[in-house]
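hey can u check if this looks right to u? its 527 residues, i copy pasted from the old doc so theres a chance i mangled smth
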Amino acid sequence: MSDSVYGIDLGTTYSAVARINDQGRPEIVLNYDSQQTTPSVVYFESGTNAVVGGEAKREQRAQPDLVCSLIKRHMGTDFPQEFHGQSFTPESISALILKELVTTANGERSEGLDKVVITVPAYFGVKEKEATKQAGQIAGLDVVGIVTEPVAAALSLEIRGEHPETVLVYDLGGGTFDTTVMRAEAGRVEVVNIDGNRTLGGADWDTALTQLIVDKFVEQAALGDEDPMADEEFETELTAQVEETKKSLTKREKATVRCRFEDRAETIEVTRAEFEDAARHLVNQTLDIAQRTVATAQEKSPGLQIDRVLMVGGSARMPMIERALREQLGWDPVRTDFDLAVAKGAAVYGQAAVDEVLSIDGGEEAATGGTEERFFLGGTPRLSVTNVLSRGLGVRLVRRGDEPYVSFLVHANDAIPASSAPLPAVTSVDDQEYAGIALYEQGGERESEAVEDNRLLQEKQLPLPPSLPAGSPVEITLIVTAEGLARVTAHEPGSGQSIDVESQVSELSQEEVEQATKQVSGLSLRS
């Protein structure tokens, strides 16, 4: 292999690192605690020192105001967090996690690698993807690629079949959920469509279990209308126990939790059946999304049938998930490495990228690495990945009566790369000096013309020649790259003036990235 690369599953609750070993197989690199996964938690011990991982998670109980978790849910948004008088963005906090993951991996292997591939949920949009890439840059890493989690999970299987199979990936992580339908064979993955919910994950099962325990405690301790969760000490102590209780209920039919509030102390017994009933609405949300994903795939490809269902993500271990997929949807799900599959697949993707045998637009000509078989690609010499757009993209137009709306030029689950047919727009008033070209990304699960339902990515002004009458034409076209980045071109035929509006944007400017890099590099890190 020409070089080595780490595949990083940057998870909402846990992260993992993998690489291709000397035998050509993806393997997880253990952390300093000899664990395969690391909590995605940062404890700001002082203004100059931060702790990442298990110790940080343990400190969350004692010093919650100095600990940050679930930051992935805020990637690509304006969500500053303040610790010891310093403000940290989601990108800089994620950078601390990434930096410590790589430092630990290098220490375990006595190496100095800095090339990484980072995974993202399939439905992450432009800003979230760019924010993830910037987090890697802030950490001082060479980000050679961003790959979606379901594609990575499929790559981890080292599929060797002679014929393509249609796979549904059901990915339930700690803080996010998505489903992907793809066609897969050795050395080739073609995504058909994706769906998901960025704020649904194992943490929500924790919340449901917490409420179940609280309700039982209130009744057992005869607290009446008192809410013990209003007591910070009670809440912190219970929260620290809930995750382990959830894990126990994955293996056992019942578990106990010791709760203390003021002068009351009770041992609360929780059964798996009670937990499953409390979380039934969450399971049903995932099933609805999974069914919707398959229905959309069948609309795109009539006659499509699912050959295999893969369960991915640590939270998919819960028995209620497999049983619901079997009993309610009639599927026969396959267990994977759960919370390790994504990191392993990221290593496969990354190694193919640095070996220059990766094509991400479906074109075989892009793979230039020769014909040597590679075990990490299922015995094939090269890898081809064809993806789809996670969210629709459009531009803001104005109807008569000055009513603004968004006109979508490409849509969610369109194959990428893609280009739209020219959109004929016109100027709205006489002697208009500029045409505002605003690029928007779909904000909700469904396309909406309402401007407020979508997210502005970028806006620029196209200069217009003088004395143009109202109704003069302006042509707008949109091109989307294989990585899901977009470029709008607006052209005024009379003057020949054109502008490009790029969607490769994030909450952080280049100057802010440089400031965050200096901030992160100035902190002493440990696990």
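Residues 393-495 form a domain with the Substrate Binding Domain Of DNAk; Chain A, domain 1 fold (CATH 2.60.34.10).
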